[in-house]
TrEMBL record:
GO biological process: endoplasmic reticulum to Golgi vesicle-mediated transport; regulation of ER to Golgi vesicle-mediated transport; retrograde vesicle-mediated transport, Golgi to endoplasmic reticulum
The protein, known as: RINT1-like protein MAG2
Entry GO terms, CC: Dsl1/NZR complex
Organism field: Noccaea caerulescens (Alpine penny-cress)
UniProt-listed Pfam families: RINT1_TIP1
Annotated region (Disordered), positions in chain: 89-112
């Protein structure tokens, strides 16, 4: 029988042993369980002994490998030293050596480059070996720390000791990453070493991150997160609730320390992963990583809130305004704790480029967007597609637009929460996408097309009634704030149209991606502009078809339409110079979305060209109409060829047959001037003057007419009166009748001057400021002149 060993002295018991015995044997009944308890302890001791033996074997193996490696490295160094010694002895040759010694020196000099190359290779091997050994040691520490954190038998208390082990693992991971970054930058040929270390670190992180997140979730549960959602009331939507229970603010003591430690650990792990990703992608800037990774710790705060909120969402499928109100209320009520409590922890973890406020808002918006995609939009799309009757389809469109209004309003409110931090530029597409519920259209551009179609239909229905009101085409825009309205004198219908167009553009600004804004405007705004242009064209064609624009009312109608078109054209031109529209002209495309914009034309380039073409066409038609009436009234004047050889009538300063035509010309141009904008009227009268110049020049001066002295004087006075009609709009109207003016110059010349001059050719014409007539035309005009000495021959 084995001798019974005496019990140790009670005074030698440690405090932890006393605590262990007190917990295990609380009363006499516990003594009966002693055998089982002893057996359990022996089993655990046996397992620990086995693990210790395994660790010892690993240590022996590692020491043996290190010893072998050290021996090899020592041998290499010995060889290097021997070669260096040989090199030193070979270079120390006495100067009194013979010429034969000089030959030996040349031979040794030839060996120096190869020897230096070999020394460099040995140095590279040494550096590689040291780096590999250091990395192997660090990765071994990481794996041991990770395994220790996963083994509950080694760490019975998941409190300070566990936190210390995890913190040690994270620090070691950072050291390892620093070495790997240095190696990748300075020694790109060591790629296999980096790959091998990355493989082992990835395995360690694959175990460490889930465990850290699980511990973080468990800690949040013990804190009472998520908080109970308060009842949604209208007063709580306008101001922050005063009675919000925020478990993050209520933390204290050891619990707060544990939470901060867990949060810091998660941030450090995420920062480490971002650095590894940047290195592996060949970039040394974390900002250049392909995607922005949400903050893990904030996501874990939002996920349970999302689950709790969706229990309410299911009751409000027909009242989406309640859904948006609840999400905004939660976002607003807890956003301050992100700045005050969590942002310092993120900064301490050196996680650059992250704002807790922004991440909180982004995570809440993302959870809402996901719910809209899965539960809300499919219902609304189904209603649009299934509605066959007009009333049902109209109701479905109203519901859709109401949902869009809610999304736009929600985005503005949450973006104001983010902008309060003062660190976010909301003009960047990447930031807008993350804090906009309208980002749902990025993955579903077909839903954006439905929205654009509905928006277009609603605007056209409203605008149709305004187009059909004739008063809107006669009353001019009187807006002193719009400088262009005074220049183009547009009818009020153009102002009403701009209100509809501006509304579409304002709604497009809420779309968080440039290529989607361009798509929306092409589908909603461009057809609206085309509809307005069609209405202008129809009014002009109606006026032309009824009276061929011979009536003054029809001229006024066309003038007002031209004014409206030119006003819209100028406004579009001004808008397209804004950065908002210039971004769309860069030809950007989204994933799976074709380019809707020609970079050289801008977003409204096609519509702009159509408006310009319409304006030029109908300005020319106004000119042609007046010219046609003027031509009809000057036929008798043109056909009377004998009048240019008759004596001048003293009582008339202008030919009687020309008076009616001039009166018609002045009357029609006055009507057009009164109603057409100044810029287009200038283009019209200049075109008209040019056509009259060609008409009289070809019909009179080029028609083999003979001019006497009195005839030249009569023609000169007639032309002065014609010029006078246009003198109200320019100082030298004869400049717009170049052929008539130069023809008159030739007619007024003396006979000898003309004959001698024409014999000199084109040079003489240019010297006498005859630039618009060809030499043949000038000779023909000169031949039509009959001087007094030759008058009896006719």
């Amino acid at each position: 029988m084995d001798a019974i060993k005496p019990l140790p002295q009670v005074s030698s018991f440690s405090a932890s042993l006393f605590s262990f015995l007190d917990d295990s044997f609380r009363d006499a009944k516990d003594l009966s369980q002693s055998p089982a308890f002893v057996s359990e302890l022996q089993t655990e001791i046996s397992e620990l002994d086995q693990r210790l033996a395994g660790l010892n074997r690993q240590l022996e193996s590692g020491l043996a490998a290190y010893s072998s490696f050290s021996d090899r490295a020592g041998g290499l160094f010995s060889g290097v030293n021997a070669k260096l010694s040989d090199l030193s002895s070979s270079t120390c040759v006495p100067r009194s050596a013979s010429d034969g010694g000089n030959a030996g020196k040349e031979e040794e000099t030839m060996e120096l480059p190869s020897l230096a190359k070999e020394v460099a290779q040995v140095e590279s091997v040494r550096a590689y070996a040291e780096t590999a050994l250091k990395l192997d040691t660090l990765v071994g520490d990481i794996e041991d720390a990770v395994m220790s954190s996963m083994n509950k038998n080694l760490i019975t208390s998941r409190s300070s000791s566990f936190e210390e082990v995890r913190l040690h693992a994270i620090k070691t991971l950072k050291k390892t990453e620093e070495i790997l970054s240095l190696v990748a930058r300075k020694h790109p040929r060591w790629a296999r070493l980096v790959s091998a270390v990355d493989h082992r670190v990835d395995r360690a992180l694959a175990m460490l991150r889930p465990q850290a997140i699980a511990d973080y979730r468990s800690l949040l549960t013990s804190l009472g997160w998520p908080p109970q959602l308060s009842t949604l009331t209208s007063p709580s939507l306008d101001s922050k609730s005063e009675n919000v229970q925020n478990p993050l603010f209520n933390m204290a003591g050891k619990l707060k320390s544990q939470y901060c430690g867990n949060f810091h650990a998660l941030c450090s792990l995420q920062g480490l992963q971002l650095q590894r990703k940047a290195r592996q992608l060949g970039s040394h800037k974390v900002e250049n990583v392909i995607f922005h990774q949400p903050l893990w710790a904030i996501e874990e705060l939002v996920n349970p809130l999302t689950v709790a909120s969706q229990r309410h969402f299911t009751k409000w499928s027909e009242k989406p305004e309640f859904i948006f109100a609840l999400v905004y209320k939660i976002t607003r009520d807890y956003v301050d704790s992100m700045d005050e409590l969590l942002q310092p922890l993120v900064d301490e973890a050196k996680l650059a480029g992250y704002s807790c406020r922004e991440e909180w808002v982004s995570a809440m918006v993302s959870s809402l967007s996901l719910y809209l995609v899965k539960e809300i939009f499919p219902i609304y799309v189904g209603q649009i597609n299934e509605a066959s009757e007009t009333d049902l389809r109209s109701e479905a469109k109203v519901s859709w637009l109401h949902l869009i209004d809610l999304m736009i309003s929600f985005d503005k409110r949450v973006q104001s929460l983010v902008s309060q931090s003062g660190i976010l530029s909301l003009q960047e597409d990447g930031n807008l996408l993350r804090i906009s519920s309208l980002s749902v259209f990025c993955d579903r551009p077909d839903w954006l097309d439905i929205w654009a179609e509905i928006e277009l239909d609603e605007r056209l229905v409203q605008f149709k009634a305004e187009i059909e009101n004739d008063r809107n085409w006669t009353v001019k825009v009187q807006d002193e704030l719009i400088s262009t309205s005074n220049v183009y004198r547009p009818p009020i219908v153009s102002s009403l149209f701009l209100q509809h167009l501006s509304s579409i553009i304002e709604r497009s600004k809420s779309v968080p991606a440039v290529y989607l804004r361009a798509r929306f405007l092409k589908l909603a705004a461009s057809p609206t502009i085309q509809k307005f242009l069609d209405s202008l064209l129809i009014r002009c064609q109606d006026a032309e078809g009824l009276t061929a624009l011979t009536e003054n009312n029809d001229l006024i109608k066309v003038s007002n339409s031209i004014n409206a078109g030119h006003y819209i054209e100028s406004v579009l031109e001004e808008w397209c110079e804004d950065v908002f529209f210039l971004e769309m002209g860069t030809g950007q495309e989204g994933p799976g979305v074709e380019n809707f914009t020609e970079p050289s034309e801008g977003i409204f380039g096609e519509e702009f060209q159509k408006l310009e073409t319409f304006r030029i066409e109908w300005i020319n038609k106004l000119s042609v109409v007046v010219l046609r009436g003027f031509d009809a009234r000057t036929r008798e004047y043109i056909k009377n060829r004998k009048q240019w050889q008759e004596k001048k009538e003293k009582e008339w300063t202008v030919s009687r047959s020309l008076v009616g035509a001039l009166d018609y010309l002045q009357g029609k141009t006055s009507i057009i001037e009164e109603n057409l904008n100044k810029a287009d009227f200038t283009a019209m009268w200049r075109s008209l003057a040019s056509e009259i110049d060609r008409l009289f020049f070809s019909s009179i001066l080029m028609a083999n007419v003979k001019f006497s002295d009195d005839g030249v004087e009569r023609f000169k006075e007639d032309m002065e009166v014609l010029y006078g009609v246009f003198r109200a709009w320019c100082v030298r109207p004869e400049g717009f009748f170049p052929k008539l003016s130069e023809g008159m110059t030739l007619l007024k010349m003396k006979e000898k001057q003309v004959k001698d001059g024409l014999s000199k050719g084109e040079k003489w014409l240019r010297e006498n400021r005859v630039r618009y007539l060809s030499e043949a035309e000038a000779k023909k005009v000169a031949k039509s002149r009959v001087f007094s000495a030759n008058l009896h021959l006719i």
